[in-house]
């Protein structure tokens, strides 16, 4: 049986690229396990990048930090922030209507 390859490419912010290549057979079971292997390899690299960025910029990338804008206010501002989201959803086309005879 002929084999195939699953390929992926990660492009870093500086323009460098990293190739991910996993060999698989031409059947669904092998392709699915190859996809899982590819996903695992990419996850390891991305996790390392996240850790690296957090150590380089602890204040700007940390999800636990809350900006001053988010800390200010007595709760009324939160309600105002929700309203624009509601208006944005009203821009969607209305649901399809059915005629009743």
Give the SSE layout.
Blueprint: E1 3-11, E2 17-25, H1 28-56, H2 58-61, H3 68-71, H4 76-89
Biased composition (Acidic residues): 66-81
Region (Disordered): 52-101
InterPro entries: GON7_meta (IPR027893)
Description:
The chain is an alpha+beta fold. It has four helices and two strands. A hairpin with a 5-residue loop joins strand 1 and strand 2 (17-25). It has a domain at 1-57. Helix content is 50%, strand content 18%. Strands 1-2 form a two-stranded antiparallel sheet.
Structural class: alpha+beta
What's the end-to-end separation, in Å? 61 Å
Say how many strands there are. Answer: 2
Order of helices and strands: EEHHHH
Helical residue percent?
A: 40-55%
The value of Rg in angstroms is: 24 Å
Taking strands numbered 1, 2, ... along the chain, how are they ordered across the largest sheet? 1-2
Count helical runs.
4
Largest sheet: 2 strands, antiparallel
Can you give the mean pLDDT? Answer: 76
Shape call? flat
* Poorly predicted ranges: 76-88
Give descriptors for this structure.
GON7_meta; two-stranded antiparallel sheet; 101 residues
Summarize the structure.
Pfam families: DUF4611 (PF15387). 50% of the residues lie in helices and 18% in strands. It has helices at 28-56, 58-61, 68-71, 76-89, and strands at 3-11, 17-25.
């Amino acid at each position: 049986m002929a084999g195939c390859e699953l390929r992926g490419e990660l492009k870093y912010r500086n323009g460098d690229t990293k190739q991910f290549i996993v060999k698989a057979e031409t059947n669904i079971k092998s392709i699915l396990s190859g996809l899982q292997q590819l996903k695992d390899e990419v996850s390891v690299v991305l996790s390392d990048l996240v850790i690296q960025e957090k150590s380089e910029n602890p204040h700007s990338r940390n999800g636990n930090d809350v900006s001053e804008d988010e800390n200010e206010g007595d709760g009324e501002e939160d309600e105002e922030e929700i309203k624009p989201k509601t208006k944005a959803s009203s821009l969607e086309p209305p649901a399809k209507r059915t005629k009743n005879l």
